[in-house]
Design a protein that fits this description.
The protein is α+β, with helices and mostly antiparallel strands. The chain has three helices and four strands, in the order βαααβββ. The protein has one domain.
């Protein structure tokens, strides 16, 4: 469980790749960013979930995985310094 004082996650500048913008709706992006900032990492495996929870304490990168209504898997990544959060498709990485 993530201590409430570590949330919400600062997102910094929010950017998205052209590919993500081409397939995701604005409401899907906004909902994913809200989930990510609140510590809901979406469809990550147990190892990535633990790494994200640790990252809230040690200041490393955060990764969330979500799925759009059309079934497209996409990622939200916040950099370690919390300066930028990127919405992207796995193929963009």
């Amino acid at each position: 469980m993530v201590p409430p004082n570590l949330l919400p996650v600062p997102l910094g500048q929010i950017v998205a790749t052209p590919a993500a913008l081409g397939v995701l709706t604005q409401p899907e992006i906004v909902a994913a960013l809200r989930r990510h900032a609140s510590g809901d990492w979406g469809n990550v495996d147990a190892e990535d979930r633990a790494a994200n929870d640790d990252a809230l304490h040690d200041g490393t990168r955060l990764l969330s995985v979500y799925q759009s209504a059309s079934g497209t898997t996409f990622w939200v990544i916040t950099e370690a310094d919390r300066s930028v959060t990127t919405v992207l498709l796995p193929d963009d990485y």
